[in-house]
């Protein structure tokens, strides 16, 4: 990971992942976490493990990690986001405490969709990912200009073999 934007996005991914762990644990224990609750507890736990694998793939700059991350969170948070937005648009009353949890869950779903889209665009727009791939087997030899020998006109350019 050479880009600062990728480091920031991975940190946001990790913070949101830890937040989703806290939400899942508090829901499982029966405690109230400010009205935030998982949409589907079983799917939430499965998605936590999938996102952990996707984080490792994104750190290695693999596009498949970003696609799986977007697909997983898009399917999980997408329906909640769409129903929340339609409820916000059609709501005639002011925000009160009875539906504050719904608004908060809609905001969390918006964050859950925004981070994977940003990660996907970060990987798509990174030109150095394809132009300069990292190869540890050969980079030590070809990328070290300080060890290159300066040739002048007196240098022997013939390749003699001694037998």
Count of DSSP strands? 0
Number of helices: 6
Counting copies of identical and different chains, the oligomeric state is: single chain
Total domain count: 1
Low-confidence stretches: none
Based on helices, strands and strand pairing, what is the structural class? mainly alpha
Largest β sheet strand count, sense and barrel closure? none
Instruction: Give Rg in angstroms.
Output: 25 Å
Order of helices and strands: HHHHHH
**Distance, first to last CA:** 48 Å
In one word, what is the shape?
elongated
In summary, what is this structure?
The chain has helices at 4-29, 41-59, 63-90, 100-125, 128-131, 136-142. Helix 2 (41-59) packs across helix 3 (63-90). The protein contains six helices and no strands.
Topology:
Elements: H1 4-29, H2 41-59, H3 63-90, H4 100-125, H5 128-131, H6 136-142
Write up this protein:
- By secondary structure, the chain is an all-alpha fold.
- It has one domain.
- 67% of the residues lie in helices and 0% in strands.
- The protein contains 6 helices and no strands.
- The protein is elongated.
- The mean pLDDT is 82.
What labels describe this entry?
163 residues, mainly alpha, 6 helices
